[in-house]
Specification:
The structure is a homodimer. By secondary structure, chain A is of the alpha/beta class. The first copy, chain A, is built from 12 helices and 12 strands. A 6-stranded parallel β-sheet of chain A has the order 2-1-3-4-5-11. The interface between A and B is large, with 56 and 56 residues. The structure holds a DNA duplex (16 and 16 nucleotides).
DNA sequence: GTGAAAGCGCTAACAT
DNA sequence: ATGTTAGCGCTTTCAC
């Protein structure tokens, strides 16, 4: 053997396949993309040669020539909050049969970071963008407006959209939870959440919640915030802390199910009578709640459906048949579970 | 106003910026990439024009011309198993300062799907590939070998690698857990896992576990498998089921922490004496364990470190200073927690 | 320090 | 049914 480096030094091109099977580059291209009429024998020869050589097409060149890119940019705040992987699941599923591929970027709940990620991703000229929330930097909004592609803002509908929106009203979600709590007769209500000034959806839920309480003349009696660490453990600690400070609380509203689950575990261990002495509720409808000792009251954020429908809009297959900007508000259903009592005090 | 459509109909090109500021395309390109010497005044004019127009460079053209792509392909089995988002976190963090960007694909634990995803992603000519596990289709292996870029297989070291590997030995992890269980005096051991023939790491842990037990003359007394649904709830149900079938079991080994957590909740509610009557262990070292009533015994899979180091290898910044293929086996530490008793029966 | 020409690997559009 | 030509928007290379 005279040459140990006889393997592919240079990545193969169409030309290599073309030469290997004696068919023009153009025809090879047609076969590989399954476009135009190619005779069966030619087609077979091309396919055989491409496979034998291990040819992988260069989408960069293809995209530049065709001005088409089968990529959909998805920008979400986080991957460790299970909510977003679930949205992604919906997006992937809906994109499956369309030939479009999601490409994910993460903003870590920071608008500046989101802008940077968007800039980076838009420079690959994707066919569409799906991003969480309605709050973006001015520059990001301009970029998206000028991109000339479908833009779908997801999860939240409380605000002005760039193009299409699909989500729920977190303000309403908070308000409805407050209504249910008041109706059940709870009066000394605590709120526990994460310390994330840029989690606009959590903020809106809190605002709606306060509105709802206010309508019944109730005010939040105590609050507790956390950052970092295991949400389940934090939920426990915060609950212990808030109850130590204010033992008179008869309801705890958590900004997400994970800390709510921690709170539930704490209350049960502390021997508190849930939901009679104290009621609890979270938000999201996370799967994990199903394995808990009691079903925590919650409100489903419709994550999967939001992902699916956003993808359909980008793919131009929205069931609505609309082509222009769509605006869809989903209505999350309150699930009382076992942690809100079923009748008021009266 | 005579023209409502005066906005950018066509995406801006270098030429547009060039014309807007009276500087050649070439110089504009230099400024935007921060390469080569450009006088300060020229640079400012270019930057100003680019910003004013809202120019976003076309990376497709750039990549084609320069033959360089700052993308790193990452293929993982799933996003809903929290393990993988954590690996991703490590990868992103390590790639942060390198100018490289991770692009994620999901295989759903199916080798065929992995092959398809790889083909799709390799056609964008990334600078490197990180993928989970050592088991791939023949075609996938060939593609990776021929790609001429760094390939890092992660999570598992039990098998033959294509290029670099970084992970733990799941076989060893299983064996060490078995040793600890036997040493603690448990003898009637049950195994509970997911029904995923293609989860090779879980399979290897089980094999190593059986080996370890066998060395002490112990055999697995009962098994229980699940698929789909909430892992926490499934863990509960499976535990109840396996104990109903075989009440004599004194230890339950779960293939992951989530079902283990469910099992723990079940045992505590059932009033079983953990860890004396029955011991429990999971696998992964998930954060969620911190909030549970007891600390479940587990073994950390070093997810974050694996991600970080894989990224360093791809970026050519491995602390080892090596340039060729690396092979790194991390050693997970057994954490007994509160669910394995501390001394044997003797 | 700046510009002009060539070409990256593919596909659209037009032959044949 | 197959081939030819031009060019996608950039960067490389070389000239000035």
């Amino acid at each position: 053997m005279t040459d140990d480096f006889s393997g592919p030094r240079r990545r193969l091109t169409l030309r290599d396949v073309s030469e290997a099977c004696g068919v023009s580059e153009m025809t090879v291209s047609r076969v590989l993309r399954d476009r135009g009429d190619v005779s069966a024998p030619t087609r077979d020869r091309v396919l055989e040669a491409a496979k034998r050589l291990g040819y992988v097409p260069n989408k960069i060149a293809g995209a530049l020539a065709s001005q088409r890119v089968n990529l959909v940019t998805v920008v979400i705040p986080s991957l460790s909050n299970m909510v977003f992987p679930e949205v992604l699941g919906g997006i992937s599923a809906a994109l499956e049969e369309t030939g479009l591929q999601p490409v994910v970027g993460v903003s870590h709940y920071a608008a500046e970071r989101e802008e940077a990620v968007l800039y980076e991703m838009l420079s690959w000229r994707p066919s569409g963008v799906i991003l969480a929330g309605l709050e973006h930097t001015e520059a990001a909004r301009r970029m998206l407006e000028n991109a000339g592609i479908p833009v779908v803002e997801i999860m939240d509908v409380d605000g002005a959209a760039i193009d299409s929106v699909i989500g729920i009203s977190h303000r309403r979600a908070g308000r409805e939870m407050a209504d249910a709590i008041v109706a059940a007769g709870y009066r000394r209500v605590g709120f526990l959440g994460s310390m994330m000034p840029d989690d606009h959806r959590a903020r809106k839920r809190l605002e709606g919640f306060e509105e709802g309480l206010a309508a019944a003349g109730v005010e939040i009696a105590a609050t507790e915030f956390y950052s970092g660490g295991s949400a389940l453990a934090k939920g426990r600690q915060m609950t212990q802390a808030i109850l130590a400070r204010d033992p008179g609380l008869d309801f705890l509203y958590y900004s997400n199910d994970m800390i709510g689950a921690g709170g539930l575990l704490h209350c049960l261990e502390a021997g508190l009578d849930v939901p009679n002495t104290i009621g609890l509720a979270g938000f999201n409808g996370l799967e994990i709640l199903e394995g808990l000792p009691r079903r925590l009251a919650t409100m489903d954020a419709c994550r999967r459906e939001i992902g699916e429908r956003a993808a359909q809009i980008v793919a131009g297959r929205s069931p609505s048949g609309l082509v222009g900007a769509e605006r869809v508000e989903l209505s999350p259903v309150l699930q009382l579970g076992d942690t809100i009592r079923r009748h008021g005090r009266d």
